[in-house]
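Hi team,

Below is the intake form for diguanylate cyclase from Roseateles asaccharophilus. Please confirm the fields before the structure is written into the shared record.

FORM ID: S-0412
PROTEIN: diguanylate cyclase
ORGANISM: Roseateles asaccharophilus
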Amino acid sequence: MITASHTLTLLAAIIMFAGVATLVWLALALVARLAPRASLAMACANAMAALSLTLHMLRGMRPDALTYWTGDVAAVASFALLAAAVSAITTRRLAWKSGAIVVAAAALLLLAVPYEGDLRWQARVVNLAGAGLSLGAGLTAWRSLSASATGRRTPAPLSLPLFLIGALLLVRAFETLVHPGGTPDMRVPTEFNIAFLWTALVLTLLQNATLAFLVLMRLILRIERLLERDPLTDTLNRRAFDHALDHAHAWLGRGRGYALVMIDMDRFKQLNDTLGHAAGDAALRQMVKELQPCVREVDRFGRLGGEEFCVLLPDTDIAGAALVAERMRALVEQTPLRWLEQDWPLSASLGIAEAERGDADANTVLARADAALYRAKSQGRNVVQP
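The structure came back. Fields below:
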């Protein structure tokens, strides 16, 4: 036999877990500094959920103005904060405005509806608003996790708990049409409320665990990025570029060719000696920035050392590489370095090479591109040579 103690115990369990989750997310945000904005939003989401359920349990024992309207608004706010946290974790952008609008609209609607009778309309407002926010967050997470910026795939089904939470809230809103008298009060010992609370507890555990996993994955990807990136220009370092080049060469035997564009900034030593190494670093960063529009998502842009860079162009022949290299040369030339109130002209020499089936390894192609770069330097610089 289901008694009131069963529903109260489940409510207390959810509140306790939400409280513990609040402390854990606060520690991640303030102590570990792991995705601090997202972790702080998750801490607030769990705190709001705990507050809402606590006020729900106190209905009839504390002033109605506190336990009813405030508790319902806190419930909607918890879903808005959850959506903001999901956005910050998966897209690295704290999208809070749409959630704030939903919370404000729900608060006004709840003020307009008197808290009398069976409270079915209040339940519909809270559950439909929460369902909309959860499903929206699920769609955002699904799209973002399908393909990351690094080309790696993160399992999109990790967003499934958000869809399940949204579906659960839709079911509860629909239940107000079937049994309007008992559904709004989760303390009422009905089979539906017991099933709802058990499901809510499981989904709360699952959602917090999933988002914590995504935060840790984000940290791992950040560490991996630091290991394969040049700290000055954020291009691939030599080790990472060589790995990408070897991978491209392995596909050469399967009919997928590639080309290389070697880039060397002209008169870099003179720039360093005249303006200083800080200016040289700024010049390299500026050149990389100017060249980025020429680099496709499938291309690999790496720094080989000093002022020498290389771009790997998959599925590109020598003619295509020449077009890309000429555009790069023009972009570097047209923007001088502005340093200490003076302009320093920049230019680059470029050598191009196309992989051939007879090439034993990627170093052979790289050596041809380097030889072409040497010819460009010897012919007066600021030119492209095949």
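SUMMARY LINE: The chain is about 65% helix and 10% strand.

Thanks, M.
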